[in-house]
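I'll show one example:
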Amino acid sequence: MESTTPALTLTHRSEVTSDQIDHLGHMNVRFYGVNAAAGTRAMVANLLGETPHSVRVVDLYTRHHREQLLGAHLTVRSGILGVTDDGVRLYHELRDEASEVLAATFVHRVCIDLPGGGSSLPAAVVARARAEVIEIPPHGATRSISLATDPVASAPALAVLRDRGLAIRKVRAVTPEECDAEGAYLPTMAAALVWAGEPLAGRFPELLHEGPNGERMGWASMETRMRIQRLPRVGDEIQSFSAVIGLADKVMHNIMWAFDVEREELLVTFEVVNLAFDIGGRRPMQIPERIRAAEATLLNPDLAPR
């Protein structure tokens, strides 16, 4: 069993409830993120104390280690990886509280906004944070997704994605339900910029598939990274796109983009490594050939982040 890094601070506890269970029979990836976000808020609040502030997580990486089932009691432990004048990089571990088995690891890059529009942290806060910096443990390192790339700076233009036929959703307007009372997009809904809306025919495969031997197959996320460039406002017209940038025996690597189509501006990128998963056997499986052939038509390795 892996030992918990001593320098990490307990920042959150939770329990896996029935509403968090997805079509694969385990906790949905969204709720891994909910736990990590709670850890981020707690770490920033601990740093700033009573100072009013707001938090913008602009880069979110997740590596899934072990699926979590109904009733599991979870803990988040957190540490500081680095400090800038306007924010911090944080590391989180999500573990089963009873067994200490590692469920997921996370790296968040956070911008902290202070009253009056300021973004420079007080010198005392910066000094304190730097004194608490830790090294990321080996089990928290990335696998297929690199944090050294810049998926925003290297993102293709909207016209390139359209020319290659990579749209996965129809153009849609941002809804009031995705925004606050002032019409600003809710950061907690950022993934919906890619996933929400009406799918284009043939571009959004079913969630479950039948394998060659009758298996019920789904896609289990192994790693994800979301990079937020900016968030839209209510009524803005947006569209999402997706390309396959890697295809192996059991694993597929995709990157997605959401654009403000009127301004032709990138909003977010979302990178994901999915594993073909035999739901009944609770184990990885080979990607069925018919699915591999379909995904191969969307293979665009030159669009990988650089």
